[in-house]
Design brief:
Elements (H helix, E strand, L loop, with lengths): L2 E2 L2 E4 L3 H12 L4 E5 L7 H4 L3 E2 L6 H15 L1 H4 L7 E2 L2 E4 L5 H13 L5 E4 H7 L10 E5 L3 E2 L2 H14 L3 E4 L3 E7 L2 E7 L2 E4 L2 E4 L4
Parallel strand pairs: 1-13, 2-3, 2-14, 3-10
Antiparallel strand pairs: 4-9, 5-9, 6-8, 7-8, 11-12, 12-13
């Protein structure tokens, strides 16, 4: 007899862990399947930047929502994510200045604490830095970096408190379908029935 879940999440990196946490917190029965160990892929190799400056407004909007979690992790998730506020500077070549200003305008509209600063301002922030090859930069004083594997582990622990199961060393062999509908997955340990499968296994 196969296991059953409302949602199977494939991949226990930061995306899979976050998906499991949010779904389990809303009452879904979630099983996370990881072929290796949590954070073994891109998450474990990430530099962990926490910033909101992106070229696409939709991406900045997602990052803005995420920032609320990183800046208040113990209350939002529980545990620790290792967030350190250092500030973030985005430098572009002079010919990309207009695009930089447009990005900053979009981000201000999203409520991001950001501004366009001069090369001289950048030198004040980072003395000794060479600033003769650009004129302006974007600056986010609230941004910084976090511990990717710590944040991932923290999300998985929080997901477990809401009933999620995390099975490490459990590679998915196939996604099972009935006609055009997903009905679950198959692993070396057996089948898991679920009407929703989230593939968060990275590239």
């Amino acid at each position: 007899m196969s296991e059953t879940a409302d949602v199977v999440v494939i991949g226990a990196g930061i995306h899979g862990a976050s998906t499991a946490f949010h779904l389990a917190r809303r009452g879904a029965r979630v099983i996370v399947l990881e072929r290796s160990v949590a954070g073994a892929g891109a998450t474990g190799r990430s530099s962990g930047l926490v910033r909101m400056h992106y070229d696409l407004a939709a991406e900045s909007a997602l990052a803005r929502r995420s920032f609320d979690y990183f800046s208040d992790w113990p209350n939002q998730v529980g545990g620790e994510c290792g967030f350190v506020r250092t500030g973030f500077v985005r430098i572009v070549a002079p010919e990309l200045e207009d695009a930089l200003r447009a990005n900053v305008a979009d981000q201000l509209g999203l409520g991001v604490n950001t501004s366009v600063i001069s090369a001289a301002d950048v030198r004040e922030l980072a003395p000794g830095m060479t600033v003769d090859d650009f004129t302006f930069a974007a600056y986010e004083p609230d941004s910084g970096y976090a511990d990717p594997t710590g944040a991932c582990a923290s999300l998985l622990a929080a997901a477990r408190t809401h009933g999620a199961q995390v099975q490490q060393g459990s590679a998915v062999q196939s996604i099972e379908v009935d006609g055009e509908r997903v009905v679950g997955v198959r692993t070396a340990r057996g089948a898991i029935s679920a009407p929703v499968v989230v593939l968060a296994a990275g590239a």
